[in-house]
Amino acid sequence: MNNSIGGVELSSVAKGFETADAMLKMADVELLLSRSVCPGKYIVLVAGTVADVNAAVEAGANMAAHALVDSFAIPNIHPDVFPAIAGTVPADELESLGVIEAFSVSALIEAADAAVKSASVKLLEIRLAMALGGKAFVTLTGTVAAAQTAVSAGAAVVAKKGLLVEKVVIPNPRKELLKELI
After folding, report:
1. Superfamily covering domain 4-75
2. Beta strands in 38-160, from DSSP E residues, in sequence order
3. Digit-coded pLDDT (tens) for 105-155
4. Which residues, 6+ apart, have CB-to-CB distance to 159 below 8 Å?
5. Does this model's pTM top 0.90?
6. What is the residue-averaged pLDDT of the chain?
7. Residue 174: how many CB atoms within 10 A of its CB?
8. Burial category of 17 from C-beta neighbours within 10 Å (exposed 0-12, middle 13-18, buried 19 and up)
9. CB distance 122 to 81 below 8 Å
10. I need a labelling partner for 110 at 20 to 30 A (CA). Which of 65, 69, 78, 103 fits?
11. How far is CA 36 from CA 13, 51, 154, 156, 167, in A?
């Protein structure tokens, strides 16, 4: 059962391939993402049990060595995080639009988990570093109050690491913004 997610973010593509292999060989984890991201970094995300993800992330961080940018393991991840990373959450309408933007992919995933656990919101997408200069952002919707609570909780996680770019909540956003989220 995949109830945990972990990742390693690297400054080297070559080291990224080696790190992904080490993580997969260390534990029984599912590879969610292994690819180069802007600007010349590499990200490896895995899912599995808490113990397996912790073992894989530890092995990955050790293998990454000097190329390690960041790593994380989140036990008991909110199940809505997985489809948001895959970008498969449809949105028919938006009560409000909350956005958290971070300089780090790893920190952003931690923020998305904190946000969705803090209030009754729907994660729409977690966009990871592609065509973003290495940044990442999460979009969510819910009542204005719920979105404000969620965005504040998620932004606090990123801000603690000094990696917060911006956070916003837009009440009653125009329908045209839905096209930008697809």
Report:
1. BMC (bacterial microcompartment) domain (3.30.70.1710)
2. 41-48, 68-75, 96-102, 122-128, 136-141
3. 888 999 999 999 999 999 999 988 666 677 889 999 999 999 999 999 999
4. none
5. no
6. 91
7. 9
8. middle
9. no
10. 65
11. 6, 26, 25, 27, 26
